[in-house]
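Hey,
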Amino acid sequence: MSTATTLPGVWADLPGQDQAVDALRRAAAQGAPSHAWLFTGPPGSGRSNAARSFAAALQCDVADPEARGCGQCRPCRTVMAGTHPDVALIATEKVAYQIDDVRQLIAKAQDRPSTGTWRIIIVEDADRMTERTTNVLLKSIEEPPPHTVWILCAPSPADVLVTIRSRCRPVTLGVPSRTAVAELLVRRDGLTPEQADFAARVSQSHIGIARRLARDEGARQRRDRTVRLPLRLGSVSDAVIAAGDLVELSTAEATASAEERGAADTAALRESLGLAADAPVPPQLRSQFKALEELNKRRAKRGVNDSLDRALIDLTTFYRDVLTLQLSTGSELVNAYLERELTGIAHSSTPEHTLARIDYIAEARRRITANVQPLLAMEAMMAGLLPARSQGEPRA
């Protein structure tokens, strides 16, 4: 494995983003950044990491402007740890941001910095704002206090209203190379080159997912079961069973995570209110626990949708590999360990059929986003993935 140049300080965990990092370092060195920024890039490009690193560089107190973002001073360390009092990292655990959420951000933006140079508000998943909610934010983005910097993160500029993106300075991030991600995992997480390369390959260079796959055997097993689903499809009954398995895999993972987080939040709320773990909740406090319960329900729903979407992305890689073999492109296979099985599918179908199956998966992703009942969406998709002899030719 080749050795890539390691970026200094807070920028070290942004492999393959040299051009964007150079622009952000220059902006931090100038000391008078634009009041609003829009960081865009596909999943795994490191939007949130880049936003946090930029915030650290803006708050950095080293004397040399060119060295801002040193990673060693107290402001840098507290920003990266998420504990700096003047840097707020906002992420919704609901399906979409609510208007009240945005109004709280606007109120926070009016506060003067308590210790740093800037009051910085980082909004993850800004694409989860509805048009009405975004319009509430517009005024503050357009005319913020002189000490406030907004940083919005979204997959692409098209995911944010034009009225917002026209008032933000753009920063575009790309998907890092597999080699760059693997090198980061070796350097930062102590993985072997083989572990890191496998994780970087099957995650398609998504840094966060690559790290989880490399460190979590259960996550690797769930992904393997997902990408092997097409190998089980021979009849309509197989499709129904496979759809149920996919929903069960995604729901179990997301529900367990939500329950763990919910239990921790409930314990923290009880502690803050001075209630013992087994003490009954007084009537005057029940509304707070009810609100937390509703939040947990929304969190679980979003978690299931996100987990399903990730599983569908993994499933798409199976047919992407099949198409690669059918067209003899010479590109590396994402799921190289399944090359024999992929070759069998490639020989038994046509590129047109494979493209149609990729379309079925894309349609299932759209349906999940539109809140279609997950099992129904997966059953319809699996029926479309059946071999041609079982269901007739797939529609193009």
